[in-house]
Amino acid sequence: MSEHEGRPVDVWWGSLVRSLPRLMVFALLWMILTGAQASSWRIGVPIVLVATAWSLSLVAPGTRLSPRGIARFVPFFLARSVVGSIDVARRALLPSMPIAPAMVRYRPRLAPSSAPAIFFINAISLLPGTLCASLEAANLHIHVVDDEAGVFEGLAELEEHVAAMFGVEISAREELGGPE
Amino acid sequence: MGVAIVLLLSFAAGAVRIIRGPTRSDRMMAAQLFGTTGVAILLLLARAMEVAALLDVALVLALLATVAVVAFVQRFGHRPVGEPEQGAGGGGAD
Amino acid sequence: MLIDLVSMVAIGAATIFFVAGSAGMLRFPDVFMRLHAMTKADNLGLGLLIVGLALQASSFWVIAKLVLIWLLVLVSSTSASHLVARDALARGLRPWRNP
Fold first, then answer.
1. Would residue B87 count as lying in a domain?
2. What is the pLDDT of residue B93?
3. How many distinct structural domains can be found in chain B?
């Protein structure tokens, strides 16, 4: 069938296949919300179909997540965010309250305002000691709890994990940024 | 249930900061407080009182918290970069 | 039961993180630091609480719903902290520095 690319039926088939992942996500969401009760599908089937169609009209299918990228990102991110939370909890509870906040700028390598970049910005706030404050064309302004040199290393590593998960190429580490 | 009470106290402490401010940015964190500690309290209550519907309440609260913070920043926030603000008194004192 | 014990430990640890988050909210000197406390400590608190509750859950779908709630809160909380911090910078607030 793939040899006759461009025949109407193949185009139709292709878009059906590409919308399948999203259909499955919505069906799964419905099952979670209803506790997978069989009787709920009388309402669920139309709703899942409408949601899929609506979602496809809002955001065309395109972004493909790499399963290997996800498998590597999840443990990395969980471990780092646990470290980040313990770190900030410790600083908040210690009587001496050891903090030395500063702003730094980081030069992201992911394409600006792409889905991976937005994901990256949100993930930064769960990493140890960093909080994304604002973004301009070329720089992210990041608030750090303790201006330690390890911040840039951690950000670059996170960015590489995010890129791998979304299956996009980014340039090698060069000048990562500096103090503000 | 004891845990729920500790969380309620923690929620109250967060609320103190939101009421006291001092800046408007501090007050905007109310949505985040409801979205995390508020959801946590609901989850505990769902378990302690065995009311499964409270899980759905928590789910809706989590969804609404996202919308609420966007609305807060849109409504009470500073103008986006590029739109100069006329003087400090223009948007009301913090 | 071992599972009950693990569940209780997780919920107990969750409480510590919520308390730490609130301590940060009250003690930290500026809004940026408070955002760190609220975003990181409270989210791990919620994560641990959800682990604790999931261990006691009666069905797979309850666990799935708990995880869905946690993911929603993660997205909501991190976007919120970014928006509030960006807005604070835009209104001219500057981070507190060690004297």
1. no
2. 37
3. 1
- Note the pLDDT tens digit of each residue in C58-91: 888 889 999 999 999 998 888 888 888 888 888 7
Chain B positions contacting chain C at CB under 8 Å are 3, 6-7, 9-11, 13-14, 16-17, 23-26, 28-29, 31-33, 35-37, 39-40, 43-44, 47, 52, 55, 58-59, 62-63, 65-66, 69-70, 73, 77-81, 94
Which pLDDT band holds residue A104 (cuts at 50, 70, 90)?
confident
Q: Is the pLDDT score of B86 beyond 50?
A: no
Question: pTM (2 decimals)?
Answer: 0.84
Supply the range of the domain harboring residue C67. 2-90
SS3 letters for chain B? CHHHHHHHHHHHHHHHHHHHCCCHHHHHCHHHHHHHHHHHHHHHHHHHCCCCHHHHHHHHHHHHHHHHHHHHHHHHCCCCCCCCCCCCCCCCCC
The answer to whether residue C86 neighbours chain A at the CB level (below 8 Å) is yes
Structural domains in chain A plus CATH codes: 2-58 (no CATH), 67-179 (3.30.70)
